[in-house]
Amino acid sequence: MRWRKVLLTAAITSLFLHTAAAQDRWTPTPRVGIAVEDLSSAPLVNIAAVGVGNSTGFGWSGYWDGSGETDQTAHVSLGWMAYNYRSFSDVADHEIGIGFPVYDGLYLGSSVRWSPGEGAGFNSSLLYRPYKWLSMGVKGESLDVNPWMDWGVGFRPIVFSDHWRSRLTLFYDGRVDKSGSYENLAAGARMTPLDGVEFYGHWDFRDEKLITGLNLSWNRFLLGGEAPVAGDQVLTQGSLQTFTSLREMRSLTTRRKHLVFYDMAGIITDTPRIYAGIQDLMPEGTGSRSLFEFIADMERLENSPQVESVIFMNQEFITSFSNIIEIEQALLRLKEAGKQVYFYADRMSSTQYALAASTADEIYMTPRGSLDLTGFGVTKLYFKDLLAKYGVDIVNFRSHEYKTAYDGLSESGMTDAERESLETVYGALQDEMDRMVLVRETKLTEGLDGLYAEGFWMPANKADETGLIDQVMYLDELEDWIDTRGFYVVRYSRLRWEADYEWNPANRSSIALIYANGPVFEGEGTRGRSIGAESLASAIRSARINPLIQSIVLRINSGGGSALASDLIAREVALCSLGDNPKPIVISMAGSAASGGYMIAAPGSRILATPATLTGSIGVIAVVPNLAGLLEFFEVGSDTVTTKESADAPNIFRPLTESEESLIRNSIMDEYDSFVTLVAENRDMTVDEVDAAARGRIWTGRGAVERGLADDIGGLDDAIELAEELAGIRNARVLEIDPGNIGFNFPGMTGAAAALLGMEPSDPPAAVPADIRDVVEFYRTLSEFRRGEALYYMPYSLEELGLEERPD
Asked: How confident is the model over 676-698, as pLDDT tens digits?
């Protein structure tokens, strides 16, 4: 969190501020470019520039003035922290500080500088880059004793060229002391005509001399020097610097091409990883990424000149089939950029293989491995007759026959409507899987139907014979294959990236990416697990009224839930177009956006769905169990006292009366009519058109587009681009917002402690078998809703339909 960085800075500075002694003016570091230096000398010149990230490494500089004595400086920068050592004449001092980004283009820094036995001074600095061509820096030193302030400005005049813009920089530095006196320090230019070659020069106003220099860099090592060439002390003084970087710099030599082992795709989450910062510090990483992170990773690999090939070795891609299709598009963009993509696995699931078949240049498996290519299927259990034996009757009130959320409890078997719905959905999803597998059509020796028939637990050798994969090889053989191609191999989690020579502008437009994941409830939700009407509506409202946010993307992955909660959220979505401070809100549908999830989406400016999104399910359902027979079966008595008729309704220990049943059915249909009207008003459709596509039917993304329930096929990346287009902006900063409390999985913490910390206890069903978990989930679902509330629920979860894998 940004506020934590600020608190950390404040803590460090306040710690040393009270120990400062009477320290006279420090010896200035003979380096200039307060607003432009963010690489080899950034900690010495402006410690706020450490936050840019380019200065990570180790540097040394030596200075001579013709007297035979040599002064020197040394610095170390790791992450946001930096240490400087300066030795001039007989004075040596130390400095430790921190520089960090507040957001793109704005960096703050503070430090403490001290000499042993002489006291300490407190320094603060700022770097602000509002545009790609303008940079401003401020540095205050000895703020508590004898302060002075340096300031600088940088300008890149070649604004029309992405290639040349960062290769010519003009700069100016000046100073104001505590008396208000102003003096010019330096004005100059830097130019990089070739990668690895930087010429620079500046006029030193104080000593009235022109200093020129040259820096040469080879991958991670820089060597440079400078000397006066005009004015006083021509060629009688100068300096030499070296810098070893932990990032790749522009280089005189050609870099070896990298083969990147991408090792972060074990699990692809729908929402931001709550403990990402801690997870990424682990030695081997966690093998997980959010979908947004994964897409950003692929874009980074796509734009990296040092990366030639990417291999996904034993990456399970545990996620929804909808996300697999979005991942497919990211990998295809990677290939379009000229990168080669390979897969190596011990075993592959159907969706994992479909992804590999669609995107990989070659697929390899270990000889004893197995491939599972079976398509989609589901087996459902129905408990009506079992419950009846014990006198339990589940009264299922639904608006239409396709609203089958609780058929497992109220029916003896699959109804014709449910079978029709499932066959339609599975048929569309199978078409998508076939499309992906048939990218390898020229390599296949059998037709798809035959391959699916043999695809259950297919040995790797058989997969090789049929052309489903390209070769079987053991890991040592894979290593030999890599060696013969001369690749430099690196894991993605350990990849050192290139220094960023562009100035990331602070004056960028912003898009709020808001996540709505899980079942819909009233009140507060839990990040990544459930949608709370209060927390999600508040997040949308805040983004709508925030003048710094120009557009909103609402990422929905929900099968619905509370009718009231869904309606409250949908109202807030509608206000983005109808209320004060209107702005575009683009809906990005993930694996599911159905029933209550679709109600939330309907008022959006535009709606995008993937081909594997499950959406629609526009209908209403309510269930009332009747346990009167169960009490009789176990010879348990029950009696009731009421002051008014139906005061206890619905009472699960007695049957509903005809009037009560009629009231519930009428309420259900009223809810349905309201739902259909809301969709019609927001989707520019007639009520009859919506009703024809509704009636509880589930559609895939393509089916929804055909029926006017969605606007186009597209993923999260497409939604962000569309949000930019509708707002008339480009290259916007994306601010991720995951509303709700923070869940956790720490064992032993009580519910009271969790409430005190604003967390929720870990999820008990996660630790029990799937069949038991379904029963627990049903009970919890019923207990979450207030008496008499209608539900907007999709009949199935993605996991139940086999469209989403989850970690064991």
From this structure: 999 999 999 999 999 999 999 99
